[in-house]
Write a structure and sequence with these properties.
binds heme C; Cytochrome Bc1 Complex, Chain D, domain 2; globular; two-stranded antiparallel sheet
């Protein structure tokens, strides 16, 4: 009797071991949270100019977090009627900018500012044209609930993601919990945005990598104007960002309709100031300026050449103080535009790691 029991137990055990071996998928495995820390590789000269990539201590980059953020960036469930994702207004081929002058919300209404490119933002310390957000995480909260953008509310977004078949597992892999919440959504999106780095333009190869043969004479002339007579690098610094990311008034209007940075700070001394935008991939991010007033780079250069409003409130001290502008010749204008076009980084604009995940 005793013997039989032992034999039975052995038989049952070996049967179950055999079953395990045969069909591992049916045996419940205790899942472990084990995200893969990653670092975005940037050329050494980037670190020399702008230092290491910054991210909040509670949101380090992981492969799983970046993947989730990428999926969420393209996720239409974020909008009230499921027609719009972040990528609707931030298109990769346009440097994650919107080719439309003013983005249209799900309810059909238009905003009054041009969308902004999402390029090398990991190093920035303020976001939006007026600088009203201090982190990418904070920024990503806003479009979802903005009535002229995705017009949704966070409880509904969370409910939809929670009920989906894929997201709870992706949140577990990225953050160790299957419970979706808005703070984790924006953390993941911010992680993805930090990977959107663009450092492989013709300009980078010429200026930072020392490939002196790559520029045409016209492009060299354009760069000389950018740094010299044009004084563009007073604000679009020759650091890796082609921007100093401060708030400045470049003299677009004698009487600005949009108060810009003043909307955030409340200070009259900030009226008419806007975030100095990066010029990277600028040939692909038209139209230009916060209100999309210029359709082409030629129009932008004409502005700096002859349409500057010196009476604009708080016009920047770095704006050359000679009447309405730089008075560039036709040739100089063409050279400057040719230089601006060297800032295009096709690897960035077509990088499959940045596109909608399949
Ligand atoms: C309906 C179009 C639209 C949608 C959808 C949209 N954005 Fe934007 N985005 C804009 C506009 C317009 C601005 C500039 C607004 C301003 O400055 O007031 C902007 C600005 C930004 C900026 C600031 C960039 C900088 O240099 O400061 C970031 C980052 C950004 N959006 C990310 C996102 C993310 C992430 C999502 C999805 C959660 C998203 N956007 C959805 C239109 C949109
Ligand atoms: C005083 C600082 C300053 C100087 C000098 C300056 N810019 Fe700008 N630039 C800005 C600011 C600020 C904006 C955004 C203004 C806005 O939208 O209200 C801007 C916008 C632009 C844009 C449009 C970017 C976009 O994404 O819409 C281009 C292109 C540009 N500048 C090129 C130049 C060139 C070329 C020069 C030299 C001829 C130059 N800038 C000189 C501050 C400056």
């Amino acid at each position: 009797m005793k013997k039989l029991t032992v034999i039975t137990i052995i038989a049952v055990l070996s049967a179950s071991i055999y079953a395990c071996k045969k069909d591992p998928d049916t045996t419940p495995v205790a899942e472990v949270y084990n995200p893969t820390a990653i670092a975005v590789t940037v050329p050494a000269w980037v670190k020399t100019y702008v230092g290491d990539m910054k991210h909040p201590s509670d949101n380090p980059l992981t492969a799983e977090g970046v993947y989730l953020g990428r999926k969420l960036f393209y996720e239409k469930m974020l909008s009230n009627d499921m027609t719009m994702s972040c990528a609707t207004c931030h298109k990769q081929e346009n440097g994650f900018d919107d080719p439309r002058p003013f983005s249209q919300g799900t309810n059909g209404t238009f905003g009054d500012r041009n969308a902004m490119a999402i390029i090398n933002l990991a190093w920035d310390k303020s976001f939006f044209w007026d600088g009203r957000r201090a982190t990418l995480e904070g920024q990503a909260h806003d479009p979802v609930t903005n009535p002229i953008e995705m017009a949704n509310n966070w409880p509904d977004v969370v409910k939809r993601l929670q009920n989906s078949t894929v997201y709870p597992d992706l949140f577990f892999k990225a953050f160790g919990t299957r419970t979706v919440d808005s703070n984790l959504v924006v953390k993941a999106i911010a992680q993805f945005e930090r990977t959107l780095v663009s450092y492989n333009s013709k300009f980078d190869k010429y200026y930072y990598n020392g490939d002196t043969t790559i520029f045409t004479q016209q492009e060299k002339n354009g760069l000389a104007i950018f740094k010299g007579k044009g004084m563009c690098n007073n604000c679009h610094l020759m650091n890796t960002q082609l921007a100093d990311v401060e708030f400045r008034n470049n003299g677009l209007d004698a009487n600005p309709k949009d108060d810009g940075h003043m909307k955030h700070t409340g200070l009259a001394t900030d009226r008419g100031k806007f975030k100095v935008p990066t010029l990277r991939n600028i040939a692909n991010t038209a139209p230009y300026m916060h209100d999309s007033r210029f359709k082409t780079l030629e129009e932008v250069v004409n502005f700096y050449s002859s349409q500057v409003q010196q009476s604009s409130p708080n016009i920047d001290e770095h704006m050359p103080d000679f009447g309405t502008g730089l008075n560039l010749t036709t040739q100089e204008k063409a050279d400057l535009v040719a230089f601006l076009k060297t800032l295009t980084d096709n690897d960035f604009l077509t990088n499959p790691n940045f596109s909608e995940p399949k």
